[in-house]
């Protein structure tokens, strides 16, 4: 292989392993080749330097032409960033609000006990009501939901509506629980009136309906009932 081809391959970066060995041997033993190599190397470096200089000048000229448009684009960009920040802040506030509501709900919610029927399965009172409450006490809320729904559809009993709503809350189906509780028609002196108000108020917290929760808390505060003090505390926390 002649010297020119070897040098060309070197500067093109296409040397084979054998050619690399040959190149290093010539650089070590051939002064003329080494001088040619250094010369070619300097030429390549000068060309690259000139190319960079020309490229830099072209970029500066291009940049000067684009400056007004760039300024406009930067302005638009910062407006976009500012708008994005507003959206982010709004979303962040919404997320924090949801987290706050979740925490508030956990502070006030307690699973309501079975106060209607015994839970001894297989006893004489082995009817649908007992089965429903057995499922409820066993934390089988899906089964309880099905059975209380069946009782409610058939007999329209208030306890079935109340515990159906509670089962939905335990299943974290809060929108469905709201629908059930809101369907309740208050009756004079019914114990369920205030109980349903309280648990509906908690559902409103989970469904991010704070004002509705406040309204129910106000109603519970006005008369003596098991949730009067809790409603007062809840209202304070919601304010």
Automatic annotation (TrEMBL):
Instruction: Tell me which UniProt keywords the record has, alphabetically.
Output: Membrane, Transmembrane, Transmembrane helix
Q: State the InterPro entries in the record.
A: TPR-like_helical_dom_sf, TPR_rpt
Q: Which domain of life is it from?
A: Bacteria
Write down what this protein is called: Tetratricopeptide repeat-containing protein
Q: Which organism is it from?
A: Flavobacterium terrae
Q: Which residues form a coiled coil?
A: none
Q: Where are the transmembrane segments?
A: 76-96
UniProt KW Repeat keyword:
no
The answer, when asked if Transmembrane is one of the entry's keywords, is yes
Please name the SUPFAM superfamilies in this protein's record: TPR-like
